[in-house]
């Protein structure tokens, strides 16, 4: 086979693979991605150069090349080794005789081709084959080619001898015919090739000008250009499709890279958690290991008893110390909690006991030395009132008054209902009897009370109701009368035996019922008795000692010596009725002073 055919075969196969398969092959025939492709312009330029330098390009038909390329593509798609596939296609190309393609070109062209150019091509083929034979490269002979059976050798020789029929000498024609027949039978004889070359050189100049025909329409170069253009167009279209595929792969690669980063971050986080768990587990294992070693040391028979005793004493001492610390801390914590809870309950009870604040929900929270008071009240007066009560109940705590004053629209019906509710609450208190009338923001109060201070407090309570503009308090003070009297013998200060113990118990119950009240004791004497004033005072002191012996605080008892006759006793009545001690329930001295102010 000629060098030109081998070059064409190798070049077309490799270039078409670059455009059609876009793959490169390693030594084992495995396909790998190819990053660089031969541009279309370089591809066409290369083939133009081949066609211009080698005139025997016509031995490979473009359709035949396309068939070889399709066959190669099918082999690669089936997974066949690339090197074996290319060798098989090369073998098929080698088996095609150059003369078959040349005779096809001659028969397909209606105008006559340039005989001198054809002769030069034939000579070049012969020289190339001779060189291949000398270098040891074997190839199938013309006679062994399976496609030679379809070629009419006589017709080819007639076409070759046609330029010599008219003008060439008969001897030269016969000689040329014999050389061509010998060349057809054995293309590798150097002597035959030299003789054909010499014969052609003699007629080259004469034949060249005559062989140029005006009606020559198709040349080998034009056919080569057409084939190269078609292959280039196919490669360009495939290049565009491949570029789009590459862009999609790049986009997919970007998404894959983002997912890979997220997965890497998640894996790193998981590894960090695993390391933390392993570290904690290692610390726990170390602690358990140390404890185990200590236990082994404690119970190992071979260890010295003295050392054991020291270690045991240390362990027990440490354990007891830890238990003491834990118990003390636990006790202090619970003591503080209980104390704070008691203070909260105490303050809450005082707030609920206040009639003006009983309708509203106030929260008390004690934290250490701070007492927080929260809730909502309709007026600033009630807020200040709640603050005053809390300060009196817990003077050692810092008050944090967070009560919110909420201004509400005045509703007379609601104000009247609230006034009535306050009256009901006040009437439940012993020593108070009250009634109220509400008219367009004015409140009129009537009733009795055993204390002067109670009257002032009642006035403040009704004045603090939202919607009440004025309070008229017409209540009077009415002390609690005790119809208990203790009588004495004439000129004596000793309490006579009798029912005095029952009377003392009644007085004690009254004082316990009204803890804010005091007991007033007044002693009297008859005018016939000696030292009447001193005797009356001695009688009062005797009763006071008896009350103290029964558990009544002396500070709540006020003793006086009366003059004249006891209340409700006339001069005309019995004298022994004047020798007595009278009891009264009165307000404390401080309350009386505040009431006077």
TrEMBL record:
Compositionally biased region (Basic residues): 263-279
Transmembrane segments: 315-336
Domain OmpA-like residue range list: 475-589
Keywords (A to Z) from UniProt: Coiled coil, Membrane, Transmembrane, Transmembrane helix
Entry coiled-coil feature ranges: 65-92
Compositional bias per record (Basic and acidic residues), positions renumbered to this chain: 253-262
Keyword presence, Membrane: yes
InterPro entries registered for this protein in UniProt: BON_dom, OmpA-like, OmpA-like_sf
Domain BON: 411-479
PROSITE patterns named among the record's database cross-references: BON, OMPA_2
UniProt region (Disordered), positions on chain: 253-279
Protein known as: BON domain-containing protein
Organism: Planktothricoides raciborskii FACHB-1370
């Amino acid at each position: 086979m000629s060098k030109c055919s081998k070059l064409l075969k190798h070049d077309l196969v490799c270039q078409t693979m670059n455009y059609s398969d876009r793959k490169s092959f390693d030594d084992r025939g495995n396909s790998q991605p190819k990053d660089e492709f031969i541009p279309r312009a370089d591809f066409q330029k290369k083939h133009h150069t081949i066609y211009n330098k080698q005139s025997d390009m016509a031995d490979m038909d473009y359709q035949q090349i396309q068939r070889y390329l399709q066959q190669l593509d099918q082999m690669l798609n089936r997974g066949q080794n690339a090197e074996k596939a290319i060798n098989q296609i090369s073998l098929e190309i080698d088996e095609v005789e150059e003369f078959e393609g040349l005779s096809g070109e001659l028969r397909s062209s209606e105008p006559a081709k340039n005989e001198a150019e054809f002769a030069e091509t034939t000579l070049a083929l012969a020289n190339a084959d001779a060189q291949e034979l000398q270098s040891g490269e074997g190839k199938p002979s013309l006679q062994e080619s399976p496609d030679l059976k379809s070629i009419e050798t006589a017709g080819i020789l007639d076409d070759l001898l046609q330029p010599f029929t008219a003008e060439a000498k008969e001897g030269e024609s016969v000689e040329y015919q014999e050389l061509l027949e010998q060349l057809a039978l054995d293309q590798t004889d150097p002597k035959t090739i030299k003789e054909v070359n010499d014969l052609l050189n003699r007629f080259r100049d004469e034949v060249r000008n005559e062989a140029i025909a005006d009606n020559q329409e198709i040349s080998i170069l034009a056919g080569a250009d057409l084939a190269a253009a078609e292959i280039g167009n196919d490669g360009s279209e495939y290049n565009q499709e491949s570029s789009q595929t590459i862009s999609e792969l790049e986009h997919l690669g970007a998404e894959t890279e983002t997912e890979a980063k997220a997965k890497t971050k998640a894996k790193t986080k998981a590894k960090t958690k695993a390391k933390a768990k392993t570290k904690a587990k290692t610390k726990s294992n170390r602690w358990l290991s140390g404890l185990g070693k200590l236990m082994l040391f404690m119970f190992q028979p071979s260890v010295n008893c003295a050392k054991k005793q020291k270690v045991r004493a240390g362990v027990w001492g440490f354990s007891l110390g830890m238990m003491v610390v834990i118990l003390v801390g636990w006790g202090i914590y619970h003591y503080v909690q209980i104390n704070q809870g008691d203070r909260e309950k105490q303050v809450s009870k005082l707030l609920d006991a206040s009639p003006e604040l009983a309708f509203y929900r106030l929260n008390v929270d004690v934290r250490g030395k701070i007492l927080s008071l929260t809730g909502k009240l309709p007026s600033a007066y009630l807020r200040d009132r709640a603050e005053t009560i809390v300060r009196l109940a817990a003077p050692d705590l810092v008050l944090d008054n967070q009560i919110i004053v909420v201004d509400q629209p005045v509703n007379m019906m609601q104000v009247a209902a609230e006034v009535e509710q306050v009256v009901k609450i006040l009437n439940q208190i012993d020593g108070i009897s009250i009634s109220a009338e509400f008219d367009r923001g004015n409140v009129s109060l009537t009733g009795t009370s055993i204390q002067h201070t109670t009257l002032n407090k009642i006035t403040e309570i009704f004045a603090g109701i939202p919607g009440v503009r004025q309070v008229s308090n017409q209540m009077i003070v009415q002390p609690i009368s005790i119809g208990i009297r203790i009588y004495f013998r004439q000129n004596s200060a000793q309490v006579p035996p009798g029912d005095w113990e029952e009377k003392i118990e009644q007085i004690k119950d009254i004082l316990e019922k009204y803890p804010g009240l005091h007991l007033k004791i007044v002693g009297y004497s008859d005018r016939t008795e000696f030292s009447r004033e001193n005797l009356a005072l001695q009688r009062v002191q005797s009763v006071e000692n008896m009350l103290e012996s029964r558990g009544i605080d002396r500070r709540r008892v006020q003793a006086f010596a009366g003059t004249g006759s006891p209340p409700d006793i006339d001069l005309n009545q019995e004298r022994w009725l004047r020798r007595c001690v009278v009891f009264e329930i009165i307000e404390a001295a401080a309350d009386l002073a505040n009431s006077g102010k």
